[in-house]
Design brief:
354 residues, 18% helix, Immunoglobulin-like
Amino acid sequence: MEELIINLHNHSIYSDGTASIEEIANAALKARLDAVILTDHNILLQGFDHYYQKGNEKVLVLTGEEIHNRNRQPQKSHMLVFGPNQELTQFSENPQKLIDQVNKLNGVSFLAHPHESDMPFFGEKAITWEDWQVKNFTGIEIWNGLSELKSVAHNKLEGLFYIFFPEFLAHNPNPQTLQKWDEFLVQGIKIVGVGGADSHGLKINLGFFKKTVYDYIYHYQTLNNHLLVFQKLTGNVQNDKNIIRDALQSGHCFVGYDLPHSTKGFRFTAQGKEINAIMGDEIRLNRSVTLQIKLPLAAECQLLRNGQIVKTWDRSQFCTYIASEPGAYRVECHIQFLGKRRGWIFSNPIYIRN
């Protein structure tokens, strides 16, 4: 299988970001991404799906959008949409109709930053997902690289610390979001977990002092989605867009925090009596299934079934577990970085069915 590294949830000058498409492409090239997906607010950029190349390196820039009802006060329930080649903001007032239309057009939809906190000392409100009655969406943004600031900064001093020292920011996905994800999985509902950079390249101006807060290169070196695909990208934009969409739709991916150490090479697989499976797949129990985990380097690794930890390996690179019960099995890995235990890898589930 091929592994692609993509960055999801990005904003350009066409909404509330500060970088042009070319600047975003150059940042993605420097970070050696395979693709970056733009999700500007309530606008689907037309004609910007394109390969950008510098020397021997190239990156695919693709466009989706972050759709939300601008008339809603306060602003809540943002959805990341990718795949359809047509504008869908006319459905923003009804999240279920929006999801249905995305599915009709063979796209993918992810609930953006579903849980976050207010940050009153910077005048920031929590933009949470409120419409939990919806169904048939593709997945949830389990880790948002920018909204995490609202969770870890409890006062202005801490906020300024994380602004000036961004490498200390990332800790873990929001525990409420992980719990909500597991609630769906316990019900047997397939929900894909993704990570979102939410990059804006925000600029602050304090008199003579000017600074870009969390520039695009920073985001592209930190929280990424690693996709497992069955063929290499071909260079054909539409074909390669379909490859990426299919991998996201199937959950053939994991979220990796790549700043402490690259997560490339992580694998979580299942071997049954007759077939094998990867993340996002279903496999029949048939008495037992062998689950295997491979990490890029030895680290703390936890295997969860329906949200409950069933096995922990303190410092291992290769882990094996014989599953004898059905359920949604997923992996969480943690790493020591800058004096703290931090989330490193969060896999999508393998679904073991009776």
